[in-house]
User: Fold Peptide ABC transporter permease from Phyllobacterium endophyticum.
Amino acid sequence: MNIAWQTSVGKALSNRSFFIGLIITGAIALAALVSFVWTPYPVGAFDIAGKLKPPSATHWLGTDHFGRDILSMIMIGSRNSIAVAFISVAIGAGIGVPLGLWGAASGSFVDEVLVRFNDLVFAFPALLSAVMITAVFGPGTINAIVAIGIFNIPVFARVARAAALSLWPREFVIAASAVGKSTARITLDHILPNVAPLLIVQGTIQFSLGILAEAGLSYVGLGSQPPMPSWGRMLFEAQTMISIAPHMALFPGLAIVITVLGLNLLGDGLRDVLDPKFE
Assistant:
């Protein structure tokens, strides 16, 4: 087992997409962790005299229209983006995967209800769901998480269902059923382990989409609220300053692009490593 694990790790690290994606996402995660204990400047400290300064040795990424350090805001904003994306993916996988596996195992009426439920939820994208939820409960990070999480449920349900349906006719599943294993036991012992690699890859994809969705919701004022920094709201605040302080929009935008790129590369690498069809 140890030799097999070392071989898998070596194979993963030798994959260029996986390695580059791991470095990028690791750097973003490290910046988020470091921001809990240190940032170059307090994000709540306004310095009107030093507003709209371009990148310099004092402020590496410049300052915004309130004189706040943009690097510090990006570091703390990464915490919010990662937390929203991670929790929403966890909600989607935690509910969607069991539903998908249940539908594939049960068939007939249950499976049909699941498919129709997926179609219904897909009709309401994350942004529209957030608008409806905000209309009732008000804007905020929790509501953004709920909206993105709800949108993730049918994604994971469809992936789990499709993968499971392809496995149920397989010989090892038929053999497990022949020896008296229950449907639930077969699902846990044989189906879930075989669909797990595909779900892990899908998780990285949804994670990157969660980053984009959180930024979009914050941009329109439905995500995290002041004084908590957010990449999306930083872009919103920068749009009126783009002609005199382009760095206000440039660096939050780059943070989003680099994070999404890293997660997509990581997902591609995981697909290559975990899916034998890509060997």
About this structure: The CA atoms of residues 5 and 58 lie 46 Å apart. DSSP finds ten helices and no strands in the chain. The mean pLDDT is 88.
